[in-house]
Amino acid sequence: MLSKALKLQETSSFIVEWIKSPLVTASVIPSSTRLAKKMVQGLSPDSEQVIELGPGTGVFTNQLLAAGIKEEALVLVELNNKFAGKLRKKYPQATVINGAAEALPRLQLKKANAVVSGLPLLSMRDKQIDAILKGVFDVMQPGGVLVQFTYGYSSPIKKHLLQQHGLVAQRNSFVLNNFPPASVYHITKK
């Protein structure tokens, strides 16, 4: 019963933030648990640092913890001030940064094993995506992976941007029972 009440509270919070800023929040409701499980599938529990971009209410964060990644190894970068405040309370051992993903290189973080992204890339301009990709791969260890979901079937990153950064995008899975259905991509250096 408590779990359903928390899920309803999380969903209503998400709807309110979506109404305020639909291009930033990008979805009316949080991602499903099934999508979250696919997003973290294959990430090592021994990761020294995992960065999550746009964690929102923490759906992917919960699955990162369930996959064995330590809370203190998480860096949560959330643009929305209300979501960032809730994340600080919910995950006190994680590093929560209230800011934009483009700021990653200026944060002086140790190199991440992986970056998990809930950012709405399809609603962003190429220039912004370019800055995010540069930042992500500047703070990533060699061999690290950017895990990105999209509501489309194709890669959320245009071919010319992938080529410009020397990246390969591979669709890892498709989650039909998410609203809307979503594809999970693993993006790595060539």
Question: Briefly, what is this?
Answer:
By secondary structure, this protein is of the alpha/beta class. It has helices at 2-20, 22-25, 33-40, 59-66, 81-90, 126-138, 159-165, and strands at 50-53, 74-78, 95-98, 112-117, 140-150, 167-175, 182-189. The chain has one domain: Vaccinia Virus protein VP39 (Rossmann fold, 3-Layer(aba) Sandwich), CATH 3.40.50.150.
Polypeptide structure, described:
With about 190 residues, this protein is α/β, with parallel strands linked by helices. It has a single domain, classed as 3-Layer(aba) Sandwich (Rossmann fold). The chain is about 35% helix and about 25% strand. The chain has 7 helices and 7 strands; from the N terminus they run αααβαβαββαβαββ. The chain has a 7-stranded mixed beta sheet, sandwiched between helices. α5 links the parallel β2 and β3. α3 crosses α4. It is globular, with a radius of gyration of 15 Å. It starts with a helix and ends with a strand. About 10% of the residues have low confidence.
Helices and strands in order:
Blueprint (H helix, E strand, L loop, with lengths): L1 H19 L1 H4 L7 H8 L9 E4 L5 H8 L7 E5 L2 H10 L4 E4 L13 E6 L8 H13 L1 E11 L8 H7 L1 E9 L6 E8 L1
Parallel strand pairs: 1-2, 1-4, 2-3, 4-5
Antiparallel strand pairs: 5-7, 6-7
Helix pairs in contact: 3-4
